[in-house]
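Q: Hi! Curious about what TonB-dependent receptor looks like structurally. Here's the sequence.
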Amino acid sequence: MFFKEKIGVQSVRLAIGMLGLIGAQAIAQEQPIVQRVEITGSAIKRIQREGALPVQVISKETIARTGATTVSDLVQKLPAMQGFTIEAIAAGTNSGGRTTASIHDLGGAYTLVLLNGRRMAPLEDSGSSVNLNSIPLSAVERVEVLTDGASALYGADAIAGVINFILKKNYQGVAIDAGYVHPEHEGGKSANVSVTAGFGDFDTNGYNVLMTYRHDEQEQLKAPQRRFAKTAYIPFEHDGVKYIYDRTSTSAAPANATVSFVNPAVNKAIGFNPFQKANGKCAELNVTYLSNDALTNFCSFDFAATVEIIPESKRDTFFTSGRIKLGENATAFADLSLGRFDLTARIAPNPVGVSIPKGTALYNQYIQPNLTPEQQTNATGAVAQFRAVDWGTRDSQTITDVRHLVAGVEAAAYGWDFNSAVTLSKYKINEKYDGGYMLNTEFRAMLTNRTFDPFAPAGSQTDATKQLIQNSLFKGSIREAYSDMKGFDVRGSREVFALPGGSASVAVGADYRELNQVLNASEAAKNGTIYAFSAPAEFDYTRDSTGAFAELAMPVLKNLEMTAAVRWDKYSAVKDARANREVGESQDASTYKLTARYSPTQQILLRASYGTGFRVANQSQIASPIVSAGVTSGSYVCPASLESENAGFCRPGRQQYDVKRGGNSQLNPEESEQYTLGFRIEPSNSVTFGADLWDVRMTNQVSSVSEVQAFGDPVKFRELFSTHINPATGEQKWAYLIAPINIGRSHYRGIDWDFTVGEKYSFGKFSLNVNGTHMLKANYTTPGTDNVWTDSMDRYGINDAVTFRNLARFTAALDSGKMVNSFTLNYRNGYTDAPATPYNVATKANITTPIRLEVPSYVTVDYQGKYFITNKWDVRLGIKNLMDKEPSLSLRTSSGHQVGYDPRYADTMGRTLYLNTSYTF
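A: Let's find out. The predicted structure is below.
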């Protein structure tokens, strides 16, 4: 492996040198003098044209043609994007509907998102990732996507590449935009309206002020409103065998009961459903649990019918920008972006444990009669596994507030172009519970007084009890958290000396940032006000970073340019204000990048790059204490090795186990080496074709052992198992720990390609654009190792995700003057699904050898027609998913509460009509 890696590095260095050698023998073509601008991936102002780095530019018209209503909707549909976080995971997590970008499946933590070339405050609970929902779409003029590492210019987090949102400026007039989205099937409607106004011409008046405001509303899409999502109890057929995929939950209504005995190593706990014992069948909304064994006879609750596919949300964004000339060669500027994102996610009613002590009325009525005389003697008590259906769904409202201010000066003096600015950026969330959670004192009183019966069917309570239920609902905040980033940067560029191809240019710069990340749990969350609730871990972390870079662009010949960049960064230790200590140590890293661009003719461009990168662990990964973090995604039989240690900590049968999460103060920076080799060919003014081979190797990656691995080899990963005491019942059971370590390695490689043709005819201009990504490698070491390799290429991997070998987008458009018609085809190849052990209908048991479904390729077709009513008023009418393609069956067990499909890889809305109109005054 070491020899192969060295060959790859030497090949790129040789390619860069070959470009120089070939270019020395070529004859240059004169280039016209045009305005120099700064392009993402370089700090040197230059002529805006194809450069040595692969930068995809998405124009304002292209954005509109996609029919995207949000920034995340736009970015996540690009073929180069894989491995991002979608809004739908808000159903079942505390994400607040965050969405991220991920270039080439390397992950959101390795993709740097910029606003007008500068960083934004990252997500409080996701390290360096930026929530795309905080960016105002109505203010975006274009998007530049650099699909190559850029740590040598931007510092940490840019290993996969950079997405730079360029916002509007020097706008005059007033524009009103409005849109409405209506799915053909029930649920999921949305609407938006925006107003943009600008006055002052910067070139003639010396100033310009721009303001834009946008409001969006999204209606919830409930799981029962789509055929593929309405149940967690799914019959299907595979290779001629009939199965049932059962993801229902043993937290049921009426409750299941688990009974414990003295000497649990000999007398193992048993489980049953008292209602089923008395009536011979499970109650409504429940089914017989298909993973029952000799010790259990549970009913299970079909929770999938109560969750959402898409949560309800409202979004308000405001952006204003001002620019004023301070003289002939200086400009002052300020950009302010404000946003509020209000999302309410609703998931299944609360699964809670209720302690049923021996000898109580509930025990005597429901538990004692279902035990043998010997069991009655040896029993120590019972726990009801209860689903609080009568309290309604768990409704979590998350309000996200974003403030991003950049103020600075651009100037030209002494041959230098300077740019310096101060950045104040804050990302804040407030998570509130608005339904489904119980007040501790009131709920316990209902149990004590027998005014509520957990073993009674849902909906059978008396009117008096229903009123008590309403009075026992908790409504209020559980946590507030924010990321507050303050920064200052300065950079300058100038021409320095003459070369045969023109003047060499240099850029130098430095920046300083301080990031404060805080989470405060509410008093209600901490003082036991909420029944069976573990408060989130509070923290107050601060870390600062300092960086400096230099970049040199050398036009060796008229048709050959070579660039070298180097950067140094230093990060302080994490200051933990709550513990009054510093965690970890200060860390520094140096990175560099070499690029070459060669044009043997005006129609051909060859380019190459080689560079290094790094990423520091986020503050929570370093400093977080061990805290409760929910339950496992899957259900597991208690491992034999843990059972032999203490069988009393085991759960009967196959069930979910508690999860804990913590940090590691010894984490070091992750490192990368990467290269690109590419070409662009333009045989005519109407045809362009290009491709870029890219390769990224990462070492020292922060990883953790997955739950599947831990439960699969509990002896090897024994240190990851401890116990957890349930705050509601006091029972102590085994729990699995997620903790980060520096051990992972990965190797990703692929080809980004595109083809564009445009021809004018008598009836209009026809254009075809095809672009895609072809993955060649997606290898990574299994969590907890640095030498056991696996991959997720076209199969559901142990990282609970798929890397698709081929993603492509085809857009054909006909512009006939007042009317523009376009069709877009989106392609994603098929893959091998997650392994699963479903219930075999014939044998009446869960299979022991996992099966893996083959999920077919997924293709959708979109249409849009744009009509110019006047030169100031246009209307767009479009249909997304024209063929009403549904998601395919998937037996995965991760990423939220949705069951039977994967919302990351398919359109869950179905055929959808949208209408947009824009009027300019």
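A: A fun detail: The two ends are 63 Å apart (CA to CA).
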